[in-house]
Amino acid sequence: MIKAVSTLPKPTPRATDPAVLAAEIVERLTYRSGKNAAAAKPHDWLAAVINVIRDRIIDRWIASTQETYDEGGKRVYYLSLEFLIGRLMRDAVSNLGLMDEMRQALASLGVQLDLIRELEPDAALGNGGLGRLAACFMESMATVDVPAYGYGIRYVNGMFRQEIHDGWQVELPETWLAHGNPWEFERRESSYEIGFGGTVEPTAADGSGDDARIWKPGERLIATAYDTPVVGWRAERVNTLRLWTATPIDPILLDRFNAGDHLGALAESNKADSLARVLYPADSNPAGQELRLRQEYFFSSASLQDIVRRHIQYFGDIRTLPEKAAIQLNDTHPAVSIAEMMRLLIDEHDLSFDEAWAVTQPTFGYTNHTLLPEALETWPVPLFERLLPRHMQLVYAINAKLLIQARREKNMDDRAIAAISLIDETGERRVRMANLAFAGSHSVNGVAALHTELMKQTVFADLHRMFPERINNKTNGVTPRRWLQQCNPELTGLLRETIGDTFLDDTEALSALDAFADDSAFQAKFKAVKLAKKAALSNLLRERMGLKIDPTALFDIQIKRIHEYKRQLLNIIEAVALYDQIRSHPEKDWQPRVKLFGGKAAPSYHNAKLIIKLANDVARVINHDPAVQGLLKIVFVPNYNVSLAEVMMPAADLSEQISTAGMEASGTGNMKFALNGALTIGTLDGANIEIKDHVGDQNIMIFGLTAEEVAAKRAGGYNPRETIEGSRELSQALSAIASGVFSPDDRDRYRALTDGIYDHDWFMVAADFEAYHTAQRAVDALWADEPAWYSKTVRNTARVGWFSSDRTIRQYASEIWGILP
């Protein structure tokens, strides 16, 4: 065992006064960009600032890492296919406590901090809530002093950059790495061989002997690490985000190239390159499915090899791994890690199968984020066996152990055995990755109270009966640094002025704001902040889209991944119904409203892309109809990402959280909106239930069916056509959409979409329409009563401090990982 102990003195903390910072910025500009101040462009100033900040982070980063090694402490390894980290410069400056000093330093050089920070690209490492949660967790782990590594893939192009052409989503490459990434450090020494395919042979010539096997992959490549520091609040700890990139062992086959086969000579290079090119390649075809599985194994194997190597280096005995490492699987994407860990322990470290299982289970925890069948990944057995033949053997061995235990110890029947099995045999035989993650982990957690209970009752019902202590709940949270302090400094300043600074370190201290909810003077200040954030969003939309929207109107915002269960369609249909009412009853006192949408649809998800087109078609008609008189405007904002969310969430008056009850695991956008003083309109789904419990029934607009009622309707012969025909507003809105009122160029464009509501209405759009429509009119009435509106929205900010990711991480640390933060 080799244990590195630091004998070097800790570096003297670097100066933080503006004059020193300004001098260092000029120095970096000169010696790293090769320019003087007169010739520097905005992107040069950005790079110089990042380098100055990065140097201060590195001192803390090295110290944080070394302290964990010296103390022999336990470390968390968080495996996630997504880390939606957004821009890092402002986050780092703020957490270092240098925002004012850096602003002054740049001002002395004639540069505005707020202008250059807008030039930093969003890291294209995620898609939606799953990736943003991982980013919040990484920042909170550093904040509450949990030593941690995050592991993922260094995507060159990420999900995609969304543009809207004639109302349709168009996917373009996201080129965030085009000019390099000043935050990352290549770690060439942390490189690991990854294999695919090939053959598996016994260690003994006659096939007898121990459990180990020799896997001879037919294809090999190298995973190389790139590290990014993750700074906690007040920079007490800096953790590491380690992302993997793939390179071929032989980048070019020169003999084939020289023979004229130029494309064939680069085949291995292209195959490796594709692994780290795009997040979530379309898996509607066999090639896309194979690439997705390759990506998941690639990053899982590299991460586990790195974890095991580090443990052996510092602690020697692989059997002590559970005492020093807690590996958390963020959803099913890294579930193949269970089989890979067993392979490493058995084939590389000579443990028996039972010894390896005794190390694996207490090391792993699994977070489930969805009950949707399509998101609980399964892989065809032939594909899995072809790509990962040794892992297929281990999956069968784990399954045998599991099913024998279920039959002999738990006396389970054939139906339960079939549900528990790691192999789904109902059709094409497939490997169930969620079951593998459940079986191989000591903890399985949901991300909201309702979601966790539904896990026990639905997808994991029989596994829960077998392991009744394994499932637990850890309700999601968001980091208040990015989602309050940094994205809304105006509100943060007002809160500090009103209730002091305690909430900066303990978000639940926001409860002191409750005393000011009905104070007219405070309400006026709160409203002024909200109006300023709405004006900022209005200006942004005018610059990007040429749109003019009224900041004094009610900003009604739904921003999230486009999916039928999230029910953007319900929102659009209700907007059409409202449009009809405004035109039919101009004498009524309608409240001006702007409905804003944002989100990406998966490239192969036809209906989701059609919903984007519908939103834009409806916007085109409503926004240009003089009969509406500016009372209603619809806007679909392209290329929704973290930076756009940081502008839209503080500007929201109304937060749309309207998923079909029982289908949203948690949500985190609902928390961010409420923290910034928006009223939630939503179903009793995901974390909405817990938000309601914290803010109070009177400070949230809840409507619609419960999860139990949804299940009962689906099971009990629900007739959506009858429901539609019984609602004049709904039937007229659907008729307008279906008949081509909003698509005169293709009158049947939305016929299939509306027919789906008439025929089966799986997502309960028709079933919940009247309740939603009624709730929206209650929102109008409340908006007209300004003191009542701000009383409720102030209380939302005051009462959602519990939804901090710091609280969530402390629960993970003490209840799953065995770490005292």
From TrEMBL:
InterPro entries: Glycg_phsphrylas, Glyco_trans_35, Pyridoxal_P_attach_site. SUPFAM superfamilies: UDP-Glycosyltransferase/glycogen phosphorylase. Transmembrane segments: none annotated. It catalyses: [(1->4)-alpha-D-glucosyl](n) + phosphate = [(1->4)-alpha-D-glucosyl](n-1) + alpha-D-glucose 1-phosphate. Pfam families: Phosphorylase. It comes from Sphingomonas panacis. Belongs to the glycogen phosphorylase family. It is found in: Cytoplasm. GO terms for biological process: glycogen catabolic process. Its EC number is 2.4.1.1. The lineage of its organism: Bacteria, Pseudomonadati, Pseudomonadota, Alphaproteobacteria, Sphingomonadales. One of its GO terms (cellular component) is cytoplasm. This is Alpha-1,4 glucan phosphorylase. The modification N6-(pyridoxal phosphate)lysine is found at residue 672.
